[in-house]
């Protein structure tokens, strides 16, 4: 979609609707199905995977908040297209490894409204999708952009999109930083409330993800390392795919471990794949 926009073609909304339909069908069957996809990003394909990941996270979030299937589709569509304006942002700014200059940041900020309005002109997008696209950089304290909206001026969908966009960006590899671990990211985001993010909504988002979000790596007291693949009612005891043995310092025979049934196993800490040089993409 984005490459076609770069070449001057129009957005194919039929394709967008097909992608969103696929995402929301999967989420309806298992709310955590696609939530580990954010861990697969590389620096080169960030914008692509980020768009898919934000769409899936928003669909799961909206589902947990009780939105109707049609509303979930609209919010997920907004997630898929929320960064469409970046398709017209120069790559040297998008992928700059260092801090942006004031002039470059002004150009970057234009992706939300100026370029988006140009690209989406003539499409009758639903309001929930538009809220996601236009409000994902707004802040409750009014210091966001592009409109500097405050608190109740930002719709719930807009506040949701801000939370999801920040979470996914921080847990991703970027040209200028390594990925943060999901659990630590959520703790950091809580410290930014209520100025940057809506505290009540963020708490609900954390409940949606779980204390150890799908896609997280956790180290157990036994020395096993597992990838979180599913949540349980007890959020401290998720279902894992065990992939590594710390004691032997090697990959182990992959097997599923439900901590709800293994009371002698306890999560010691969440870890980054780099700690034991684990190739996470081989197991998601």
Order of helices and strands: HHHHHHHHHHHEEEEE
Name the average pLDDT.
Answer: 89
Helix content: 40-55%
- Count of individual beta strands: 5
What fraction strand?
Answer: 5-15%
What shape does the CA trace take? globular
| SS element count, helices | 11
Summarize the structure in words.
- The model has no long low-confidence stretch (mean pLDDT 89).
- Helix 4 runs parallel beside helix 8 and helix 9 packs across helix 10.
- The two termini are 25 Å apart.
- The chain is an alpha+beta fold and 284 residues long.
- The protein is globular and about 60 Å long.
- A 5-stranded antiparallel β-sheet has the order 4-3-2-1-5, with no helix packed on it.
- The protein contains 11 helices and 5 strands; from the N terminus they run H-H-H-H-H-H-H-H-H-H-H-E-E-E-E-E.
- Strand 1 and strand 2 form a beta hairpin.
